[in-house]
Amino acid sequence: MKFIHYIEKVGGVSAYGIFSLALFGLIFTVMLVWAIRADRTMIEEISHLPLDDRTN
Amino acid sequence: MPTEQFYYDNKTVKRFAYAVLFWSIVGMLAGLWASISLFYPSINLGLPATSFGRMRPVHTNAVIFAFVGNGIFMGVYYSLQRLCKTRMYSNLLSSLHFWGWQLIIVAGAITLWAGKTSGKEYAELEWPLDIAIAVVWIIFGMNMFGTILRRREKHIYVAIWFYIATWVTVAMLHIVNSVELPVSMWKSYSWYAGVQDALVQWWYGHNAVAFFLTTPYLGLMYYFLPKAANRPIYSYRLSIIHFWALIFIYIWAGPHHLLYTALPDWAQSLGVVFSIMLIAPSWGGMLNGLFTLRGAWDKVREDPVLKFLVVAITCYGMATFEGPMLSLKNVNAISHFTDWTIAHVHIGALGWNGFLTFGILYWLIPRMWNTPLYSKKLAGTHFWIGTIGIVLYAVPLYWAGFTQSMMWKNFTEEGQLRFQFLETVTHIIPMYVTRSIGGALYIIGALIMVYNLRRTIKQGQFSANELAEAPALPAITQTHGRTYWHRWIERRPLQMLVFSLVAVAIGGMIEMIPTFLVKSNIPTISSVKPYTPLELHGRDIYVREGCYLCHSQMVRPFRDEVARYGEYSKAGEFVYDHPFQWGSKRTGPDLARVGGKYPDSWHYNHLLDPTSMSPGSIMPNYGWLFDHELDTARTPAMIYAMQRLGVPYPSGYASEANRDLASQEAAIRASLKGDKISTGDNKEIVALIAYLQRLGKDIKAAPKEQTAMKDGGALMGN
């Protein structure tokens, strides 16, 4: 159950920060590219979903 | 294609709407009560349940989990059915979800008033309720995913993505932060200690804001704003980017609550960087909302629903600009521990969550009852009273926070602190009064709304089951142009769940694992020893009374704090603190170094009547500590629990602990006797004095070079 001091030392802790930024950058770029290139008709269709619920 | 007929379940939505109305008033009144006790402490009536330390968690829990929580469910149950063109998956699950959640809220309020708390902000509820929350949350998830899987619409609209991300992340946060070891039916100790506990808690705390108060409400915005404005969202592409960027970045930002603390420096920097990056998706979302209304501002002038939504979205933009600013270290050095934070969160709570909820209620209830709103004029009045209430609430607190911080940091030419802590408190009391007036106005507005909606409901005809029709979902769907991987994922809710979990889990793991594994992140200080049994009891009382809500135990490495409180705090000092008690607000002074600063009799008199020792103090009296007896039968279980958590008491100590407790108690009673104070046997006050006198003492016993050397690593990074 004890949580502290399992491993004496892990080298290069600062790499965690850099890795995290790189990972974010990668995912964000992929997302951005997809969103920009996505099909116009489909985007139109999806964005009208809230207005098309066949009641009211 | 043949159309199918089905019925939307409005009954569950109605129940949640009633719950929102009820809990909004309860939660806000608790807040008003707590705020008044800051300038008129005797409003607590001398009762434990109504003292600030217990009212404040009741207020925060009621507003977050009862008011906003029910608001989320109301909006989700309404919009999800319509976006999926199907009824909610199961009536039974809907009922269980509703009643289960209300039961947790009632039990939560009662236990918090009774002082049953885990002592971690916004996660105060004790372990039986933590389990109940997990169960009800799973019921909600089953109902939601069942509905999504049975949908008649091939696309999953962006609002549903926000709901999915909310569900999965809140589940993860709640489970990780609630790992605790039960000692008795209503008492547990956090599995984590000190710096680790702080990191987990603020990873949770920050993301509770993100994934309970923000993402579900963004989902609601993406549904109800187009509905109310009767036009699609400005840019659906932007909403996709908004979603992924937001959930990915938010999860990393937690450590910005711990700047300049004993948290390792790299974790602090990580929190700052991601907090700054959060501006982009947050403002993307805000602009997407506001641009939806372009060319329709004439409607906003007339429609109370749109008015509320516009102010809500604007407040979202303000709060999400301010948040990253507050996470800059130089700004945080001023704002942290002051009322600035309270002002900031209320822009979010009153403006964003409150006004969005009100807007949705004004739109939803006339529709479900098939009648126009009883009075547009009253809704307009509510809007203005509420808006003025927000301004009157927030502005004085910004002022108070800034002023107090400047006073704390002010030195005379001779290099002495210019102000006593108490002077900085009494100086801002007029601002506290104004804040309460603002809050009261906001509640009056909400009461007007309750009246208006009640009249609307009375004049209307409720349709519990609303007929709708839609074609069944074809097995093979037509594609538009090229297909991309995102097309694939956006039709698959379960895969979406997995991807969202991966996105948020990576952030959480990278943030926390190093702190748990790397020894040099938490340097040990050999003179730091476990608490004695009596001190442990005192600590439980400290947690029970919510002392941490007004007193920090974290001296930051600033000139004024070192001058005022003593040596700054080191990570190694907190290794036996289950849970950590760093606090987040200094309504009273820091207590990290209070041990030995005053005689026992000073604490005795001060807790009996704070103004007798500190004239003008706004701390309440704690009279009951002088009557309540210490439950020493619990001692062995407490020691045993601590041993299981890794606190190095000698083996077999659990059975001997009460002997040590008795001798330490006798010593404190003798010292009180020396100052002509006689106390009865086993009173709680003695245990609390023992704990307070212990705070910060260990490090004073350490050789100077040792602590200086050891803490360098923690403070400066590794």
Task: Walk me through what this model shows.
The complex is a heterodimer of chains A (56) and B (718). Chain A is an all-alpha fold and 56 residues long. Chain A contains two helices and no strands. Chain A is elongated and about 50 Å long. In chain A, 12% of the residues are buried. Chain B has 718 residues and is mainly α. Chain B has helices at 11-36, 52-84, 91-113, 127-149, 158-177, 194-229, 236-250, 265-277, 279-292, 297-302, 304-326, 329-335, 339-368, 376-408, 421-427, 429-459, 485-490, 493-517, 533-544, 559-565, 600-608, 610-613, 635-644, 653-674, 684-694, 697-701, 704-716; strands spanning 3-9, 180-184, 187-190, 465-471. Chain B has a two-stranded antiparallel sheet with strand order 1-4. Chain B has a two-stranded antiparallel sheet with strand order 2-3. The longest helix of chain B has 36 residues, at 194-229. Residues 707-718 of chain B have low confidence and may be disordered. Chains A and B meet through helix 1 and helix 2 of A and helix 2, helix 6, helix 7, helix 8 and strand 4 of B.
Per DSSP, the total helix count of chain B is 27
Largest interface: A-B, 44 and 72 residues
Strand content bin of chain A: under 5%
Distance between the termini of chain A: 57 Å
Q: Which structural class fits the helix and strand makeup of chain A?
A: mainly alpha
Average predicted local confidence, pLDDT of chain A = 70
Instruction: Count all strands of chain B and give the number.
Output: 4
Identify the overall geometry of chain A: elongated
**How many strands, what sense, and barrel or not for the largest sheet of chain B?**
2 strands, antiparallel
Structural class of chain B: mainly alpha
Strand order of the largest sheet of chain B: 1-4
Q: How far apart, in Å, are the first and last alpha carbons of chain B? A: 66 Å
